[in-house]
Design goal:
mainly alpha; flat
Amino acid sequence: MEVTLGENDRLENVLKKFRRQITKAGLFQDMKRKRFYESPGAQRRRKDKAAERRKLKSLRRRPER
């Protein structure tokens, strides 16, 4: 990630812009997830659980017929 810094840019605004780019790219969640070791079985269970949540969410959004 790269943020260009102008002469009149304030540090707070540049940091906010950088954080927004990292969040949008999904790097922040990836860093959190990779902070601790997760066994392959735990990864599979987490992914299966997330897939089930996505499936239920899409079923809820579908109009009833």
